Amino acid sequence: MTPPRPTGVPILRLGDVLVTGLLNELDDTSALAFTAELTERIAADGARGVLIDISRLEVIDSFVARTLTELTTMARLLGARVIVAGMRPAVAITLVELGLRLTGVETALNAEQGLTALGWQRMPRPPGPLAEGRP
């Protein structure tokens, strides 16, 4: 099997969590390539969680909605939990108006809440010069 063609969508690893974001609307080919690339990374990195930030998406069509649903199912089969974070109100309204369901897709209001749900915590800054912005 040949490795998936890179989509140009950054996928960062934070411990056992992969973090990625959709920076603009994906066409069908890019959505399929992104799915293949992300599932390969889940398996290769042994990721237990994936955060997909969609806060920059202004619209979502039925194909991308279906792709997110299928990606979540694939990730679960590979042992990872997926959280889609940052959905704009207009996108949520459109999904409901079109009768589209993101069945099985967990959502979070923003990336920070999504990471928290995946077990990450914001650590308080230690007192001292670094906390005050001095070297």
TrEMBL record:
PROSITE patterns: STAS. InterPro entries: Bact_StressResp_Reg, STAS_dom, STAS_dom_sf. Residues 7-118 form the STAS domain. It comes from the Bacteria. It holds the Pfam family STAS. This is Anti-anti-sigma factor. It comes from Streptomyces fradiae ATCC 10745 = DSM 40063. The lineage of its organism: Bacteria, Bacillati, Actinomycetota, Actinomycetes, Kitasatosporales. The gene is rsbS.
